[in-house]
Specification:
heterodimer; A: mainly alpha; B: Rossmann fold; Helicase, Ruva Protein, domain 3; 2 domains; 5-stranded parallel β-sheet; two-stranded antiparallel sheet; 14 helices
Chain lengths: 475, 349
């Protein structure tokens, strides 16, 4: 007796197999999702616990908690991996599940078992095989995919979502809290953060957005042929951003403990009295960086350097540095014409801005179309908000030696990656070419390191001190 | 067999079964489930041990069944002095037509399609063994000559649970030869009322045979063949094996140290406590054959878990050898089997 001789039976078998495969795919998808969500729940909760532990527990207790927690997470990973492998459904298992779900009384699983055993094309082991097939075909409507297959999204998605939101909440609280807050998870702080959540989130989003490429009109998209007057406007913006950059630094300093501030000030021997006064004034400002609104202009100390008191070359240099917030790095060359180049925050000392400048360098978006001559009263760099004019005389050397624009352009591009402390004095003598690290700059850095070491500045504040020190030195 | 023929065969089986049930029910009032179990064992090709108090209709059931099936029927009343030859037959010196004398084999009452061995526990073990050997081998050997028993051969043995004095309980090995053990319970109030009314009247119920006398054995054998054609999935076989294995207590004798079973059940506490010896593989065979009949009765060509569960108590309850503690606490083997079935539900997924 031949197992499946007829075309009709073959077609019926094909239909059954096709549907079985579809249901099986749904079973497996569900199982996979379920396990992934389970794992996600475990990891979200684990991360939240770790963060909470890091803030709430002593280092010793945190270490005690962290290792078992990490081991537990690894255990969960293995458990869910094992469950995923064990829960993988083959055709026979899928048929059994369908039998149970649709009440087929093992009709389908028996059929599949016969097919797996290779009944097609061979003498059937039973004269009742055609009846089994016929029976299964007649019962196809009983196990349509919609009826027996699980939903596309398992129920474990909701707990996973809840765990994820909890973890995000735990991660966000310290980010939205003032850096001076010793315990971000104190009830008061959490309440404060929650009450001011939209504003704080907006502030963080704004900070993050600054990493994105700026709009073309800020970065030379409007070309050097833009209208006159934009340069003045850019200068004004540059001053403003310069002020903001200093304001942030001073606020960072103000956020430090009093004793530490004293030590920092001792280390900053190069700071002028004026600046010290300004910083003292800034210490009265609210230490909460995020809470300080940009509109609080009245409270902002004026850190802008009076260019009129400076020599001609230094005036430009100051402007150029204003766009970078007093960074000790060489400023990038200015954008075409009077267009804005410097970051809007004017905090050229920040790594984020540096990353942005590097990125833009790589793209070549703000490479100048022509040479910028130092000593041309900063007109080229005056247009950008932040006035990152880049007309640092160190970059170009003697104006008399300036040749074609392309030559100057090359210098400017390289200069963005170099230390320029030592080049300040030698700017007039520089004949162009790639600027080398100054021995003087290195010694200054060493002295700075020594000063920090002597003052016993905690490592987390070293960066702030270095920045302030650099600014003082440059002035 | 085409689709239609296969379906027709299943349908014919169902019709025959239900007709027999209906006809027997004319003579036997109540005991529907017992009669169904007896018929399941009959079509599965096994023998049935019926246990029940006197007067509950044991003999009536068997006689009615033989009459409905239109098969030859004999009855042996087992007593202490019954000899094996009284069952199997013996060689006797007979006068031939030519005047010479010769040994001729005279068939005993065992040579019938349906045999009622009434109160089988009253005969000696030697006589019991003669019967039970014939049941297993479906043949009788007398004086070196083997005689085949006529198919279908079906033995219904009865046990009287009371009056145990002077009885010889069947050894476990011989109990194992019975496919099912059916316990006849007392009829209900309404059933007794009907029995009283129907059996004391003038009219006797007329039972209509389901088969013609000549073709009955062949048709029955065809139906028995169909039962064996029912398809079984591997996971059902695993389930049956797990059930049988679950009746064996932990730490029992003659258990292999390593059992690489893929599907096993944890040993039930009551099994460990009350069972001395579990079911033999014959129990699994009985279970599967009975389940196949149940599947056909449901119009299916495959065995399901429910089919197995349906027949597990009659198939296994006489195969569990209970210990003294079980007898002292009057533990019913059926209760232990029910617990095993409940614990086996997780294997269904």
């Amino acid at each position: 007796m031949v197992g499946i001789p007829g075309t009709e039976e073959r077609l019926a078998l094909a239909e059954i197999e096709d549907r079985l495969r579809r249901v099986r795919a749904r079973f497996n998808l569900y199982s996979l999702q379920h396990n992934l969500y389970g794992l996600g729940i475990a990891f979200s909760l684990g991360v939240a616990l770790l963060i909470l532990g890091a803030f709430l527990l002593s280092p010793w207790l945190f270490t005690l908690l962290a290792w078992p927690l990490l081991a537990l997470l690894a255990f969960f990973l293995l458990v869910f991996l094992r469950r995923g492998v064990a829960g993988w459904t083959d055709l026979t298992a899928a048929a059994r599940r369908i039998d149970a779900l649709a009440g087929l009384k093992e009709r389908l699983s028996t059929l599949v078992a016969q097919l797996t055993a290779g009944v097609i094309g061979k003498p059937s082991p039973s004269s009742l095989w055609p009846h089994l097939l016929e029976d299964n075909t007649a019962r196809l409507p009983d196990w349509e995919v919609k009826k027996v297959a699980p939903s596309r999204i398992p129920w474990s998605f909701l707990p996973f979502l809840a765990a994820l939101l909890l973890a995000l909440f735990v991660i966000t609280i310290p980010l939205l809290s003032p850096s001076s807050e010793p315990n971000p998870f104190s009830l008061e702080n959490v309440q404060t953060v929650l009450s001011d959540l939209p504003n704080r989130l907006g502030q963080v989003a704004e900070d993050k957005m600054s990493l994105l490429p700026d709009s073309p009109d800020q970065w030379g998209g409007s070309s050097i042929f833009s209208e006159d007057g934009s340069g003045e406007q850019g200068t004004a913006k540059g001053d403003q951003s310069q002020g903001q950059g200093r304001e942030q630094e001073s606020r960072s300093l103000a956020s430090l403990p009093e004793e530490l501030q004293k030590k920092i000030r001792q280390a900053l021997q190069g700071l002028s009295d004026k600046d010290r006064g300004n910083e003292k004034q800034n210490a009265d400002l609210p230490s909460d960086r995020l809470a300080l609104r940009p509109t609080d202009e009245a409270k902002k100390p004026d850190f802008s350097i009076q260019a009129k008191d400076l020599p001609k070359g230094q005036e430009q240099q100051a402007r150029g540095r204003g766009g970078q917030g007093g960074d000790d790095k060489g400023g990038p060359p200015s954008g075409p014409g009077g267009n804005a180049q410097a970051p809007a925050q004017g905090s050229g000392i920040q790594h984020l801005d540096r990353a942005r400048l590097d990125r833009k360098n790589a793209r070549g978006q703000f490479q100048p179309d022509g040479p910028q001559i130092p000593g041309s009263q900063g007109e080229a760099g005056a247009g950008g908000p932040g006035a990152g004019s880049g007309t640092d005389p160190r970059l170009f050397g003697n104006p008399a030696n300036l040749g074609a624009g392309a030559h100057t352009f090359q210098l400017a591009l390289d200069a963005t990656h170099e230390k320029t402390e030592g080049a300040v004095e030698g700017g007039e003598k520089d004949e162009g070419g790639i600027i080398e690290k100054s021995t003087k700059g290195l010694s200054q850095r060493q002295s700075l390191d020594d000063a920090i070491r002597k003052a016993q500045i905690p490592p987390e504040y070293e960066e702030i001190v270095k920045r302030l020190f650099s600014r003082g030195e440059s002035q | 067999m085409s689709n239609t023929l296969a379906a027709q065969a299943v349908l014919q089986f169902q019709e025959t079964f239900h007709r027999i049930q209906k006809e027997v029910a004319k003579a036997v009032i109540g005991h529907e489930e017992m009669i169904e179990n007896i018929l399941i064992a009959f079509f599965a090709g096994g023998h049935v041990l019926i246990e029940g108090v006197p007067g509950t209709g044991k003999t009536l059931i068997v006689r009615s069944l033989a009459e409905v099936l239109n098969l030859s029927f004999n009855r042996i009343q087992f007593t202490v002095d019954l000899m094996p030859a009284d069952i199997t037959g013996t060689r006797m010196v007979m006068d031939r037509e030519d005047g010479r004398r010769d040994f001729v084999f005279v068939e005993g009452p065992i040579f019938a399609h349906v045999l009622l061995a009434d109160e089988v526990n009253r005969s000696t073990p030697k006589t019991q063994a003669a019967l039970l050997e014939s049941m297993a081998e479906l043949q009788v050997t007398v004086a070196g000559t083997t005689y085949r028993l006529p198919p279908p051969f079906f033995v219904l043995a009865t046990l009287n649970p009371i009056e145990m004095e002077g009885t010889y309980p069947l050894p476990e090995a011989q109990l194992d030869r019975f496919l099912f053990k059916v316990r006849l319970t007392y009829p209900t109030h309404q059933e007794i009322q009907r029995i009283v009314g129907s059996t004391t009247a003038l009219a006797v119920p007329d039972l209509e045979p389901v088969f013609e006398r000549v073709e009955a054995p062949e048709k029955i054998m065809t139906l028995r063949q169909l039962v064996r054609e029912v398809l079984v999935a591997p996971h059902i076989e695993e389930y049956v094996a797990a059930l049988v294995h679950a009746t064996i207590p932990a730490g029992a004798k003659y258990v292999s140290g390593t059992d690489p079973a893929r599907v096993t059940l944890p040993k039930d506490e009551q099994v460990n406590r009350y069972v001395s010896f579990g079911s033999s593989p014959r129990g699994g065979q009985s279970l599967m054959l009975g389940a196949k009949v149940v599947a056909l009765l449901d119009g299916r060509a495959n065995v399901s878990y429910d089919d197995v569960d349906r027949v597990i108590i009659p198939a296994l309850n006489h195969r569990l050898v209970l210990n003294f503690a079980a007898e002292a606490e009057d533990v019913d083997p059926a209760a232990i089997i029910t617990r095993i079935v409940q614990s086996a539900r997780k294997l269904r997924r």
